[in-house]
Write a structure and sequence with these properties.
The protein has 16 helices and 14 strands. It is α/β, with parallel strands linked by helices. The longest helix has 17 residues. The chain is globular, with a radius of gyration of 21 Å. FE3-S4 cluster binds next to strand 10 and helix 15. The site of FE3-S4 cluster (F3S) has 13 residues, from strand 10 and helix 15.
Amino acid sequence: MSKGPQALHLSLEEQAMLAGEAGPGVAKAMEIVVALGRIYGAARLTPVSSVQVSGVSYKNLGDAGLAFLETWAAQGARVQVPTTLNPAGMDLVNWRDLGFSDEFAQRQQAVIAAYTRFGITPTCTCTPYLVGHAPARGNHIAWAESSAVTYANSVLGARTNREGGPSALAAAISGRTACYGFHLDENRQATMVVDVRCPIGTESDLGALGFMIGQLAENRVPCLRFHDWRAGDLGLNTLGAAMAASGAVALYHIEGITPEARAGAVVRPGAETYLIDDLSPGRKALDGTCGIIDLVSLGCPHASLAGLREIAERLDRRRLKTTLWVTTARATREAAEAEGAVSRIEAAGGLVVADTCMVVAPVEELGFRSMATNSAKMAFYSPSHSGLQVRFGPLERCLDAAVTGKWPAARAI
Ligand code: F3S
């Protein structure tokens, strides 16, 4: 990310907000945005059209985070642009049935109430782009959830840095973000090329690939060259989520596929090229060794309507032995419920859980010890965030584990 020596220019309106003329809550937001602008050498601020705020689960925020939000909201600050929330620590409706404690639920509801006082829509999802909040190409936005940031930058062609919770909230309240990093053309060129020469057949393959690329890239911008491209656009959120988890990738390109790569040359001269012709190192790094599975977690990033339909279809006439959580946005759950996909999953014994996911929920309190998932991001974070033993593999293998309670042997191809 380039830092410039120039002074940060503020408009008269921005200066007035910083001076407190719009109230102390707005002044606090401007202080954060301006401080980031100075740290990163921005020449100016830019208006944003959409904000997504992370730091919603009480598990991560704790009492100090809740008090910070309540104090700021009490200063009268309100968001100026459409703003959504990342997943919370529980399903906001069915939390009791799922085993969350009254104490946790009360604190989590207080967090949501504080965000609602700012005027934020409590979507509680990492896929705002699937529930009516998809920015257009070139839009400047301030999103915080790393998988959503990568999807917005790479697949939608919008422009955002990887915001933190407070900086995203500050952008929502001020309506602005500091114009540096991925808001600028010069930082959106690929600084490395990845030649992908192995077949990609499933979303878990995309996850394993993303995991390997993230490790190589760290915070660089990769441009991927596929020799056998079969994944649709939706699989791309799996790819980006994994890259953002194992590395700090916030933007990638795919030759001939993603919007900026379709529009012209995106690779900076001299960029180094890497070859990936085998996914087994990624699969092995993400997969554990436990045999008994007491939870199967699907929907990371949050499941789309098409994803819920596919799971419902694959579960027809099957009966689950192990707990299955399919996590999704509440709006997606409602759409799936209306067309019968939720009741088909429930008929097999699975649960379609909204507003949360197994990384931000207090899983350890719910008694789960081992998990199977088809998500590389979930497999990467769950051991450290939730103390779970994890098995990682394709959807069908995870569903087989849900039926038997055991991680199945790999099928012969
Ligand atoms: Fe979303 Fe949770 Fe995965 S926030 S990307 S479902 S870890």
